[in-house]
From TrEMBL:
Source organism of the structure: Glycocaulis alkaliphilus
HAMAP family membership: Dala_Dala_lig
Binding positions for Mg(2+) 1 per the UniProt entry: D251, E266
Protein name: D-alanine--D-alanine ligase
Family: Belongs to the D-alanine--D-alanine ligase family.
The gene coding this protein: ddl
Amino acid sequence: MSKRIALLLGGLSPEREVSLVSGRECAKGLRAKGHEVHEIDPANERWIDDIKALKPDLVFNALHGLWGEDGRVQGVLEYLRIPYTHSGVLASALAMDKQKTKAVLRLAGLNCPDGKIVSRFDAARDHVMPAPYVAKPNDQGSSVGVLIVREGANRPPAELAADSWPYGDEILIEKFIPGRELTVAVMGDRALTVTEIVPKTAFYDYEAKYADGGSTHQLPAGIPAHVFDQAMEAAVTAHRELGCRGLTRSDFRWDEGGDGKLWLLEINTQPGMTPTSLAPEQAAHCGIGFPDLVEWIAEDASCQR
């Protein structure tokens, strides 16, 4: 049955441009299924009034990053009592905090890299952890602001102390995990498959994720069966332990040449839905076309998630 859908895209975060692409692709897929879709950008301060006036059957959240993926928009929609997609307030807020997420997932038995929250000014003054390590915002996605400090680096990244640094004064310093980059999307309580990502840049950064040809994806990943199964199980465990709903994607490193462990780096509660994104690619591999995927996400919408 055709539904009236308010689709949120764009927003206020550094991931705005990615969200605009995700949102337009989702809108196209939902319209292909016969739904009435109205695109609303929360960068417009009247966005809540626009939703109230529309009286939608549900809100499809295609936002990424802060003010979209961190529980605040979900809180507004709970207050308005309008069903919405993806995870609820608590799971969204928790998953957006990378350090707190790791604390929860370690209790569930998953391997997560050691790390600590520090002032960006302290991190720019001296190494706060033996290199190699990763310096990154604790609450951003799409690899924005991620810096890798290689072994032997004489100094930490100077840009952390720059006036132009846009990602807040506290950052996460995390042990660098070498190895192969893997990811698993979870749809409901079903892990789809494992993809190995081979970036054409130094690591799987913003450009590798979204530039056409920035990385190659092997799916299913050509890894040993026990590692494949472990990644699938760990992704479902992370999804459940955080109380996630709808579609998520968990990112891993497999340290094949070192300790042999599978390390969970983070979980994304609003995975990208662009033409180069991993979750829809995995769904297609499982025989779920893009319009069917976004319709499933829409049908899963509810309040009190």
